[in-house]
Write a structure and sequence with these properties.
Ten copies of one chain form a homodecamer.
Chain A: E1 29-31, E2 40-51, E3 58-68, E4 72-74, H1 76-84, H2 93-108, E5 112-119, E6 127-132
Antiparallel strand pairs in A: 1-4, 2-3, 3-5, 5-6
The structure holds calcium ion (16 copies).
Chain lengths: ~150, ~150, ~150, ~150, ~150, ~150, ~150, ~150, ~150, ~150
């Protein structure tokens, strides 16, 4: 694989400022070097935080993103910056999770995409949101996330 | 997603009294912001307690609720209050678990719902109750609960 | 659910003597309060012991019972007493495990039943026996047992 | 050891009503059958719930009690009922935990007592309270509680 | 314990805005209801985030705070708000961790205080910072944090 | 089940010498007491060792055997002795694992058989061999082995 | 070490009947082959059961025995038979645990002995009993038992 | 199985130099001793390192390779050397992972091959790449990898 | 703390080439911002690799470094580069581990330093090396590393 | 450290035959490259097997060796061969464990040595043997072995 595909990336390598909102974040892509295969790419993002739209208090989540690239790969640093852009963004758990998935689908046009949002507990009850864009491509291999369940104490 | 959907909620934000019984508990709902997708919402509720109808002694359970919203989402604080309303309610394990599921189905009219009740041991033997409303919607992604099995000691 | 269904139970509440053998143990049942649904009931029984028919030495097992009630539920205290009745009963691992399943099938006439027997090691090699009464009812939800595998030491 | 020491117990065996408050709960004791030794008795109580004095909402805790009996043992069923008596009792985490320890010290007059309160999270932050009555008796063996730390999600 | 001690709290119960910086955050206290005992209070705070002073990128940490109250307890909601106030604060790992400890010592004047900062990896290497205010009070019971070590992958 | 089926066993009970090679080992069988059911028997054998045919150095493996008996059960002590007979036997990982499975198939004529060989690392890389005799019988219940993956250190 | 020290053992090797009570059980000993060293021997006994003296119901425990031999080692098969002899013995948790320790001390006259009894839960609350014969010999190495704590469910 | 099949191996046994690049690495093969069966061979390789093509910094991964041999087995020492040959090789995560799989497919012509690459985190976000050569052969048994998910800290 | 202390750092922020050997690696330091306290800084480095001086094959280790800063902190990026500089360095396990510790002591002049080297297995046997510079400073808090022990398979 | 210290090693690198008995095994040593420091070397040996002197059946153990070198290091390949030499050696658990420790002490003359033998269960009861040569050198750092306790099943 030639490295030219990374030539047009603006964020990789340098020190990029954190985007002020999801709308201002730019997702950069590179051509899929193996477009003939259906393979799965998984990003595990335990450093996610947004704001509660009602109380303004911070929310935290552990996100796991799975996708099958079609023509494009997401560049990982721009993905990181996109996720960081929720830092001052108010949004409900279900809405943030599904919204991130939809943005990525729109920009990457993947063959398939799945996003698990494992949110930290509020009121003693954590919420998980499990979204996928449809039936997985046939013959794909998708290991479980294996995220340990919440159990309170003890 | 506009926040207006939360306008009519009476319990969110304020300090709500614990309902005296399941019958007195009000489940509040909000419109599903993503009604076009089949996605799963999971609530993990390790703080559940009711009473044994025979002895009057407290029972405890760890509940995990999964559902696929149709037109409505359950508002999480009202769910918490509903679960707390069993605190003085006598009921058998199988009955409480299935009863909660049925109440939620009635009020949310979800596309699909699943409830796992993991009850604390009595007589050295814990009971689990696993209910679902039917065959899961096609193409849905439903990770395992992964609740660790009971093992006595050692 | 009315509590009348428990009216005829002789063992619940009081202090019941341990039956001397499986044959002498009485399994009590109550009407299934939710006969219209296929739901799973799981009992985890880490306190099981019987005797080796060849050496007379004690054997120990961790049992996990899953069943889908039809018309009847097994009353949990009578189940406990039935399991305790193997304390002085000689029987091989495979035979005890399958025999318990068959007795429960006979008395409960469940829609489906599964019994896992995880026996303590003899000769450095534990035996597990996994029995089910047939193909599970369609649309049933049956979480894994998740019993940790044996590994010797280290 | 003769069983006479249990003769005066009023709660053991029968079905005892849950006391309405800690004040109404009676802790029963039996003579220590081994008063010449310093040994440790540990009770693990994952089924504890009380009320928040400010909001009236339920709180949950996992308690682990360690003590070295002097002249008296606490009878375990009365201990269970005592803990259940907090079900409708408003109290802060620190206060409940230390208060339980003080009540037990007063009634048992043990050589030493330790109580760990592992409270379920509120506001995303669980509180633990670790109390002991003083320096442990010399030569005593006190294994760690080993309660798994809280970690949010992921 | 009377609840009057909570009378002067301004943040408890209501919905408090997130302070813009640590300097603007107010730590509220209540009188120690058990000033005669040396007991340990542990707060586990897995929801902490600040900014890297060099790159402006978010940093995340899991904090565990242990202290032995003297005259004052820290009120937990104000502690939460104080920790949230680092959300837009630039600071190095060692500096944030020790700075939080020093602020708490100044305001609570505890008998003893310990703070463990378990920071998320940067450059593949996480940093932990372990601070305590001095030798623990004699006879105190301080269970290990038991935070699982970092291990990369596999 | 009558115990007569064990009458002809020569190894059970007494002290049997370790066979010098797999060829010299005798696998003893007993009639399947439940030939009408498809149930699974699992043996977990963490005490297996053989020799490397190239270097003569010892190899170690953790074996897990699953089979569905037809007319015969393998007697567990003779299985143990058979496995011990590899102690001085040179053989490659793939060959030993599949060879054991084939020998058992030949002697037991089971409805189905599966053998997992989890070999200790050589050159920093462990090999696992997963063999099954064909498609499992319909309706059979086959829990995962759940053997923890190898991870090097850390 | 010569094997003559095992010459007088009556239980090793053969098939020994289970003693009917602890009193009838014989603990056999062999000379300590390394009497000049203080080393620790640990037996882990997860297969222990006795009877509740009040209800006659079975109790179960996981026992861990540590001792530093003086002149004698306990022969492990006779230890097993001694523990099995509690199968029909009524006794309270504290009493059984300390009683076993005292019997072993009397017969082995060890330099030091420790017994941990981890009892299965009754009434939702397990009891552990931790006994040691005194201060451990100086310079001895005694790893923790590491028995996982009880946690109810979830 | 005769050992002749190993006759032509040049690397086994002796001390082989580490190849300078993947291109220079030779994968050696041996005939499949059991070509009539579909069985799975799994190699777990926690010792993998390559270089980032942009920064030149080292990357690390934990690889798990599964394949179903057709006519050839890969010799494990040559596999180890091949993996080590990436030590000075610049390549992106997705490219290295899929490239290794393709090389192995080309040389082994297996019935089926799967490669999981679990890469160490960069920028706080680890990437996993899951590739398989197509739909697994019918009736094959393929246990999960069970690699523990990444979770940051806490 | 002012950020000026970072002014003279040459490696932070930019993209630094990997040093060719430990001798060529520069460890950069910054003034300890809290020189009045004894606190512990822990770096966990799961990405370490060197070469075997006899065979030239790669070795891997998981390192955990603990130190108590005196006048200087080590800058973490330069530490990372220093560790990476062993990539082409031949050295035995004991020698590398202790050598790294000595280099750090020389350059940082810390109050105390500890280094644990957890090496991947060779010949089926991993080696750990545990070094500390002397008795820890009084009153220091040093949590266990908690690195999971090696166990082969199963 | 110069590599000359390895010059006289006869086993390293080449293919060495397995010694027929412990007596025939040669332990090779190299000069301690850091004789001025007290540091701990730990070998974890999960591949140990010997024979029961009474029944001739194989025994298995997981050994963990800790020592503080004085003038000599043990060469790890010769240690492996020494341990393998017990393959046909009859010996009791206590005797093998302490015997290995004594042999190593004799040959290495270490400042201190500790050996933990974690033996696989016989009769349902595993034996651990914990030996150390005396009080550890002052200021030494000796992490726990952390070997998971035995627990039977469940
Ligand atoms: Ca909460
Ligand atoms: Ca119970
Ligand atoms: Ca699964
Ligand atoms: Ca055994
Ligand atoms: Ca093992
Ligand atoms: Ca919370
Ligand atoms: Ca990193
Ligand atoms: Ca690793
Ligand atoms: Ca510890
Ligand atoms: Ca719990
Ligand atoms: Ca990172
Ligand atoms: Ca699995
Ligand atoms: Ca986390
Ligand atoms: Ca190896
Ligand atoms: Ca055994
Ligand atoms: Ca158990």
């Amino acid at each position: 694989m030639s490295n030219d595909i990374y030539e047009n990336l603006s964020q990789l390598g340098g020190s990029s400022p954190m985007p002020a909102s999801p709308e201002e974040a730019t997702l950069e892509t590179v051509p899929n070097p193996r477009p003939g295969s259906d393979y799965l790419v998984r990003f595990t993002c335990p450093e996610f935080t947004s704001l509660c739209p009602v109380t303004g208090q911070p929310d935290f989540a552990h996100l796991v993103l799975d996708y099958v690239p079609a023509r494009l790969l997401v560049e990982s640093k721009s993905l990181k910056l996109y996720l960081h852009s929720f830092r001052n963004h108010p949004g409900f758990h279900e809405d943030c999770t599904v919204g991130i998935a939809e943005r990525l689908i729109e920009e990457l046009q993947p063959k398939w995409l799945r996003l698990g949002g494992y949110w930290y507990p509020r009121g003693g009850i954590p919420i998980d949101v499990f979204f996928q864009s449809g039936k997985p491509p046939q013959n794909l291999w998708i290991p479980d996330h294996g995220v340990q369940p919440y159990r309170g104490r003890g």
